[in-house]
What we know:
The relative contact order is 0.18. By secondary structure, the protein is of the alpha/beta class. A 6-stranded mixed sheet has the order 6-7-8-3-9-10, sandwiched between helices. Strands 2-1-4-5 form a 4-stranded antiparallel sheet, covered by helices on one side. The chain folds into 2 domains: 1-77 and 156-259, P-loop containing nucleotide triphosphate hydrolases (Rossmann fold), CATH 3.40.50; 89-153, no CATH class. It is 35% helix and 25% strand. It has helices spanning 46-54, 94-104, 109-122, 138-151, 168-185, 196-202, 233-250, and strands at 4-15, 18-30, 35-39, 61-66, 69-70, 78-81, 156-160, 188-193, 205-210, 215-221. Bound molecules: adenosine-5'-diphosphate and magnesium ion (MG). Magnesium ion (MG) binds at residues 46-47.
Amino acid sequence: MLPIEIRDVTLNYDTPGGKVQGVKDVSFTIAPSEFVCIVGPSGCGKSTLLNIIAGFLKPASGEIRIDGKPVTGQGMDRGVVFQDFAQLFPWRTALGNVSFGLEMKGVPKEEREKIAREQLRLVKLEKFTASYPHHLSGGMQQRVAIARALAYNPAVLLMDEPFAALDALTRDDMQRLLADVWRETRKTVIYVTHNVAEAVYLADRVIVMSPHPGTVKLEVKIPLERPRDPLSAEFVEWQKKLLHHLGHEAGGDDMQTNG
Ligand SMILES: Nc1ncnc2c1ncn2[C@@H]1O[C@H](COP(=O)(O)OP(=O)(O)O)[C@@H](O)[C@H]1O
Ligand SMILES: [Mg+2]
C-alpha cells in the first residue's frame, strides 16, 4: 500500500467565457490504507481533484506523488468508480466487465475469470456473474463498477460520489458493503461526496473543501470505532460538527445528511 502526497495542486478550466477555477493550491497527504473523504459543496472542485489524482486531468501547477513517484497519467495503481451507472460496458456481462482490465493486461482467461468471480463475491454479486448491466439495479451496477476497479488489484481506489444517484435505503446498504470491502482489502480510498453522513460513516479523515476558489478548508479526523452506528449520539455529533465546518462557507443549503 502506498502513501499519496498532493502538493499545491492548481487547475483552471479555459472556457469560452474565460478562465474558471477548478482547484487552487490543494495540499494534503494520505497514509497507506487510509479512508479519506473529500466533502464540499457542489462546484468546489472535488471531481476536478479526483480526476487529477486519477491522471485524467493534468494540473497547471503542483504535483501528485504515489509512493514517491509523480503521477503523469492514468495507471493500474489506481481504480476509479464514478457516479454514473453508464460507466459499465452494456454489451458485457458482470463477469465480462470485471475481467476487462485483466484482459487488457493479457491475463489468461481462466485466471482472469477466477479473479473476477472473487471480486464479484466481495461485492455480494456471485449469483449475477452472467447478468448484463441493464438487468441489474443501480446499486448492483455500482457494485460491479467497484469489483471492476478492484480487479487488477490497484493500491488506491478513487470514488466520485458513487452512490449519489441511488435511493436512500440502497445507499445505506452500499455504504455498509463498502465499509466491509475496505476492511477486507485495506485499500487506500479517496472518496468524494457532498453527503456529510456518508463521510462520517466511512472516513478515517475528512478533507473539507471550500468553494471559490476550490481549496482545502480543514481536515477532520473521525475517531469513531467501526462498525459505526448512524443513529448513535456521537455519530450525530460528528455529523453536526462537519456541517458546522461546511456551513460557514457553504451556507449549508447544498450539503446533505442521510436523514
Ligand atoms: N470541463 C469543465 N469545463 C469548464 N469548467 C468546469 C469543467 N469541469 C468543472 N468545471 C468547473 O470547475 C469548478 C469545479 O467543478 P467540479 O470539480 O466538478 O466540482 P464538484 O465535483 O465539487 O461539484 C466548477 O466551477 C465547475 O463549473
Ligand atoms: Mg463532482
